[in-house]
Amino acid sequence: MAFARVSSEGITLATESFGSGERGTILLVMGATASMLWWPDTLCEALAAGGYRVIRFDHRDTGHSTTGAPGEIAYDLDDMVGDLLAILDHHAVPAAHLVGMSLGGLLGQIAAIAHADRVESLTLIAAEPLGLEYEGSGMAPALLDQFGALAELDWSDANAVAAFLFEIARLSAGSAPGFDAEDARRRIAAEMARTASMQSAFNHALLKGDVAPGLTVGAIGQPVLVIHGTDDPVIAYAAAEATRRALPQAQIMTLEGRGHEIAPADVPAIGARILAFLGEAAPPRS
């Protein structure tokens, strides 16, 4: 692994890379409130073993990246898309395969259209289709209630914060057996230990930014793989179906009974599917 700090529009982003990259670069873009730790090491290592340089990073307000005060946000969606380009520039990558989860998938779609020359392919995990409405949008009531308790959370109580974050992870999981409680607790502990302000990660809820009318998922010209759980309580599986209708050439991997998560048990299958997809999208370089 190699660590690097990247400058982007006056802030600093922490990045970590795996692999040698003889087959190209994969940039992993996580969802809202989540640092790079939400990308399992095992997935990063599996993709790197396939011949790719794999880069993951801490979003603004998470991990070791620049973190502002809770409740204050001075950036928008376009700035976060700019972060992706800054990371590619720093690592001297002309174009990369983007893998985005949730908010990361939205940022990836914008980048794939507005900066098409920098994006070779796009994998969308538990992501909404850019610019399209779909049936069943909106969070499940239990998760809405959990997030509704944010205002009453005592952020100075580490145990209370860890319990709050664990409940989000539990409620985000689907109905399939295999929710790994210990893995979730380990990740949350590591996340809390490496941030200046865990509360500031929730600044992402304040994100704004107008998406131009022409920026819709149907305008994406690169190869696309959609990965989505059928029991996702944050972004319904119908979002994946809407993306597939808008992009008939897109491939889809359905995770039966999974939610808004990358379950450790699914990592081997997810890694293999992404590598197979990339092998078709960009054959081995001579």
TrEMBL record:
InterPro entries: AB_hydrolase (IPR050471), AB_hydrolase_1 (IPR000073), AB_hydrolase_fold (IPR029058). Residues 25-262 form the AB hydrolase-1 domain. It holds the Pfam family Abhydrolase_1. Signal peptide: none annotated. One of its GO terms (biological process) is glycerolipid catabolic process. One of its GO terms (molecular function) is triacylglycerol lipase activity. PANTHER family: AB HYDROLASE-1 DOMAIN-CONTAINING PROTEIN (PTHR43433:SF5), HYDROLASE, ALPHA/BETA FOLD FAMILY PROTEIN (PTHR43433). This is Pimeloyl-ACP methyl ester carboxylesterase. It comes from Devosia enhydra.
